[in-house]
Design goal:
The structure is a single chain. This protein is an alpha/beta fold. It has one domain: Vaccinia Virus protein VP39 (Rossmann fold, 3-Layer(aba) Sandwich). A seven-stranded mixed beta sheet has the order 3-2-1-4-5-7-6. α4 links the parallel β4 and β5.
Length: about 210
């Protein structure tokens, strides 16, 4: 079985960067809007968006919310800059960074979100551990992703795609039960989103570190 690696991810999203919003924008928009609604950001909140990609969600945030976005793909971040440059009122910043080894201090953010990211990183457990670390105690953690489907047809598709994970830039198979167990923080809500409810939005509350 092939394992995801950072180099393969960077190469995959270099191919996607120019047309990512065109291909995946509308398909994933419902989920993005739902997670922003659940986040209920308030003026002055410090939000971290992990794997911000092309920055397609940035226009959804109020200019009064402090948004920090990180991504491992320089090509995706280059596209995201269009939402930051020229808008001096917006409190938004972008950093090239590995989500599995963030350089932020502990307890830096009120809310931490990962949209369509946990199946991209080589080590989802390390990603979640870092999200917990940089989120303030009592803060909110949001994960939006596709998880393994046990119905016959989707399961067959996932199985066929699995050997090509490095090429496509994400793993088509990830257990939600495994992820929630390894998050080891109280889950507040789980919702199905997007077409056919094929993606899942998890809202968890961060405890003491």
């Amino acid at each position: 079985m092939l394992n995801m690696d950072d180099e393969a991810i960077i190469k995959a999203y270099k191919r996607y960067a120019r047309n990512y919003d065109l291909i995946f924008g509308k398909i994933f928009e419902h989920g993005r809007r739902q997670i922003l609604k659940k986040m209920n950001c308030r003026s002055g909140d410090h939000v971290l968006e992990v794997g911000i990609g092309t920055g397609i969600t940035l226009p959804f945030y109020s200019d009064h919310v402090n948004v920090t976005g990180i991504d491992i793909s320089p090509d995706m971040l280059q596209v995201a800059k269009k939402y930051v440059n020229g808008n001096k009122a917006a409190k938004k910043s972008l950093f090239l960074m590995d989500a599995q080894q963030m350089s932020f201090a502990d307890n830096s953010f009120d809310k931490v979100a990962a949209m369509y990211v946990v199946s991209v990183v080589p080590d989802p457990e390390a990603l979640v551990a870092e999200m917990k670390r940089v989120c303030k105690p009592g803060g909110d953690i949001f994960i939006l992703n596709h998880f393994s489907n046990h119905n016959l047809l989707p399961k067959m598709v996932e199985t066929v795609m699995l050997p090509f994970r490095n090429l496509i830039g994400f793993s088509p198979r990830l257990s939600m039960d495994w992820l929630i167990k390894n998050m080891d923080i109280p889950v507040v809500e789980v919702d199905s989103v997007n077409l056919f409810g094929y993606w899942t939005l998890i809202h968890a509350k961060n405890g003491d570190h």
